[in-house]
Design goal:
By secondary structure, the protein is α+β, with helices and mostly antiparallel strands. The protein has helices at residues 26-35, 139-147, 152-166; strands at residues 16-22, 54-59, 66-71, 76-86, 90-95, 109-117, 123-130. The protein has one domain: Alpha-D-Glucose-1,6-Bisphosphate, Chain A, domain 4 (2-Layer Sandwich), CATH 3.30.530.20. The protein contains three helices and seven strands, in the order E-H-E-E-E-E-E-E-H-H. A hairpin with a 4-residue loop joins strand 3 and strand 4. Helix 1 (26-35) packs across helix 3.
């Protein structure tokens, strides 16, 4: 298993940046993204080993809050925690899932999501998954996965679809 490396010795890895515009105010866009990720996070994107489907994805709304999934069987698996909580403009999450798609409390890459008003009822949502050097030798593998067709772009599209449904 390849472990994380410190940023002092790891080569820089370009972040993955994805954007989408949604028909909502920044406050509503922020709320849909953070308050109930279950309504837009695909149940296939799980790292729990119990085999039970995802019952909910939880993001506790505060700095230091946990970010985790809970299965229909009650099992939980951590994904990370909240680094910055700045409604309705920005949330930064510690992604603590390693290159083998397992929770690793010693690893931290960052997912920063910004919500910028575009007129009266549109919001540009910009997601940047950075500090990928933390994955060490697995950094390019992770970067390819999260920037792939089923990665952050697809997740943002599912999120945008949820914004429309709850409007």
């Amino acid at each position: 298993m390849t472990g994380p490396r410190t940023t002092a010795t790891a080569p820089s890895v370009a972040p993955v940046v994805k954007t989408i515009t949604v028909k909502a105010t920044p406050a509503r866009a922020f709320e849909v993204f953070t308050a109930n990720m279950t309504r837009w996070w695909p149940i296939t994107h799980t790292i729990r080993t119990s085999g039970a489907p995802i019952a909910e994805v939880v993001l506790e709304p505060r700095v230091g809050g946990r970010w985790y999934e809970r299965g229909t069987d009650g099992t939980e698996c951590g994904w990370g925690h909240v680094i910055a909580w700045e409604p309705p403009n920005r949330v930064v999450l510690a992604w603590q899932i390693n290159a083998e798609w397992k929770f690793d409390p010693s690893l931290i890459s960052e997912v920063e999501v910004r919500f910028q008003a575009q007129g009266t009822d549109m919001t540009l949502v910009r997601l940047e998954h950075g500090k990928l050097e933390a994955f060490g030798d697995g950094a390019e593998k992770v970067r390819q996965a999260i920037s792939s067709e089923g990665g952050w772009g697809a997740l943002l599209q599912a999120y945008a679809d949820a914004v429309v449904k709850v409007a």
